[in-house]
Amino acid sequence: MNAPATAPAVTPAADEAPAGPRPYSQYVYAYPHKTAYRRLDPRPALRDLWAGEPKDALSLYLHIPFCEVRCGFCNLFTRIGAPEGLTGAYLDALDRQATAVREALGDEPVRFATAAFGGGTPTFLTAAELERLCDIAERRTGADLRAVPLSVEASPATATADRLAVLAERGATRLSLGVQSFVDSEARAAVRPQRRADVEAALGRIREARIPVLNIDLIYGIDGQTERTWRESLDAALAWHPEEIYLYPLYVRPLTGLGRLGADADAAWDRQRLALYRLGRDHLRERGYEQRSMRMFRRADAPATGDEDYACQTDGMIGLGCGARSYTRALHYSFDYAVDMREIRAIVDDWTTRPAEDFGYAEYGRAIDADEARRRHLLQSMLQADGMDRADYRARFGAGPEEHFPGELARFAARGWLDASAPAAGLLRLSEEGLAHSDALGPELFSPAVRAAMAAYDLK
Ligand code: SF4
């Protein structure tokens, strides 16, 4: 996957901490985090978990846990390279799993509203293997990939013409390229060695493939990065007129390459990241991009993607592959999780040799009760620039957000993180500063139980 993932960032020594909450605590891209999942004993059968669940607007996610290199900032569930035969065996297992999961969904009609291939790097697979991946999605789960938004992540080296042709022909509507920096020395500093010339060539191939939405991921806060070099990367990305640009703050996380190098987070680094965030935000806005969240910017004149009606707060997700999560209303589940390369290899190997009957059960997960559902809804809505519709929240949970989260919302208001004009429009919305502090605000909405489970998780 291009997107840097999440785990608690390194905590600075107390005397280095800036006044107020640190702006970079954790990227909340899914709640609860996988480190709050636990082995489920006994394993619930998927048939029981999905009985009675709405199945008319599911999202489908296929996870490919292979990359050519391990980027220094990455703690995603992915391994470097694959020995001969492993990707084929992985697709065999994915086929078995997809068949078992579709059976577990029962006889009623199932409709997928969105689809995504993530990782890892899905384009680590060859063109022929990508054809097979699409066949598995369509024939086993019944998803109509050409009729729904289909997002695929790629790296510059693997965004080859033959792979892109397959993806375009099979219905990919969005190609997300993990560039991180157009400055070669910064790419090296983030332990992602690549040459700008190769990145530019990959972008040319992607545009030639005519996939409607191009997303470029960039990172700020890299060692040696300055306002000048950051602007250079932003302008290099803008030259391709991408429909979307994601700006990610760099994190240093336990067990990742940068973590092992002993890099540390400190107040000066927080200041650097905040300054680069503001520069990047303003730079893109001045050039016709709308800010959709702290990280996401969309070209104002870009065509609609087709997934505007999909409600990530309420709709279920079918995740296939050994690092994918699945969501029902009552349970989020996945398989075992690790960050360390040896552990990941062992989990992938184990998953790949599983018999079909093993795929009919959920093995690791976390129950979602009413309180967790409210927190998740709040997190997924409030961290968007458009904010949360108060009437929707009340209709779903029977009361307003202030009644459920009086302490948190009063604290956010006192820090100037809430847009005081939003309630008149029926919204709960972050201010500019609130959006800039999304990675501090989000973790404050975690439940005590999830916080405790994450703290107790033995990272491996
Ligand atoms: S390319 Fe692979 S290692 Fe690099 S950030 Fe994406 S998932 Fe992580």
Automatic annotation (TrEMBL):
Residues 52-290 form the Radical SAM core domain. Gene3D superfamilies: 3.30.750.200. InterPro entries: Coproporphyrinogen-III_oxidase (IPR034505), Elp3/MiaA/NifB-like_rSAM (IPR006638), rSAM (IPR007197), rSAM_sf (IPR058240). This is Heme chaperone HemW.
